[in-house]
Design brief:
The chain is mainly alpha-helical. Helix content is 73%, strand content 4%. It has helices at residues 2-8, 12-25, 32-45, 49-62, 68-84, 100-113, 118-133, 137-150, 157-170; strands spanning 89-91, 94-97. A hairpin with a 2-residue loop joins strand 1 (89-91) and strand 2. Helix 1 packs antiparallel against helix 2 and helix 4 runs antiparallel to helix 5 (68-84). The longest helix has 17 residues, at 68-84.
Length: 171
Amino acid sequence: MTIRRSLAKDQAKLAETSATTWIENHPNHPQLAKAHLLRGDALAAQQHYFKSLFDYEHVIQVYPGSVQFNTALEREYEIAKLFHNGMRRRFLGMRILSGDPEAEEILIRIQERSPGSKTAERASLTLGDFYFKRSQMNNASQAMRLFLSNYPDSRFRERAILRLIQSHLAT
């Protein structure tokens, strides 16, 4: 696929254009999920993270049984982490909008869509950290309690317990 080659050669704009053309010309093709995933990757490579979420969401909602489903969830998680760590959304070409609401929404949806998965486990822990970092201690403690009940054998258990104690002390 020329889209993948373009991405490998750091020609993200060309990959995006090629993917868009391919999607428009093949509306019922069995590889449509892969094309949307690649277009999302091309947008993310151009640092159009919010726009790339639309393609990842399309894969997740329309093709939940596809091989690309988990990959799209993973890509959304990575974008949520970027927003969680301070990456701002673009508006009029400038990064001026907060990505916090999107980060929170993505982290919650990942847990709903793939309960018990490693991605959902990391999303749950990141959501607790998200609330803690923003001084929303009641939400942080609730998120950590949910994490501990959903993933009692997690390798992050001690970290979650510590964060739970810290959030209780902060209130």
